[in-house]
Amino acid sequence: MEKKYQIFISSTYTDLIEERKKVRDTILNMLHFPVGMEVFGAADEEQWEIIKDTIDSSDYYILIIAHRYGTIISEGPDAGISYTEKEYRYAKEKGIPILAFLMDDSVAVTLDKIDSEHKEELQKFKKDVLGSRLIEYWKTADDLAQKV
Fold first, then answer.
1. CATH for 6-147?
2. What stretches of 4-129 adopt beta strand conformation (E)?
3. How many Cα atoms sit within 13 Å of 117 on the Cβ side?
């Protein structure tokens, strides 16, 4: 019997709904199990415990980055970083294999998909991801799904 993998999908949400759906469908078509924020609801400390448990039980962690940094954590030891970065740091710390996909900078996007308020944080996050693993660049939702 072929092993089935649980794959955690992490990204900002509202700007990448179509891309997340395509990735989820691709994982399902490969007969594996995608999991992500769609099943968790609002982010808070109680939800974080569930997310940690889900990352712990995942075989792979997929990180998708475009032009948004995400919701910033306002208090506690992770104050100042986004929930997406917190998930990434946790998966990295736990040694979960990470597959990182960054939107190619040449892709034109609408202003509603750009986080102009947290550009520095996003660039720092991207730099960390780029410095610690091989990544793939993607241009469209279909291109991303094919690369996954």
1. 3.40.50.10140
2. 6-10, 33-36, 60-65, 98-103
3. 8
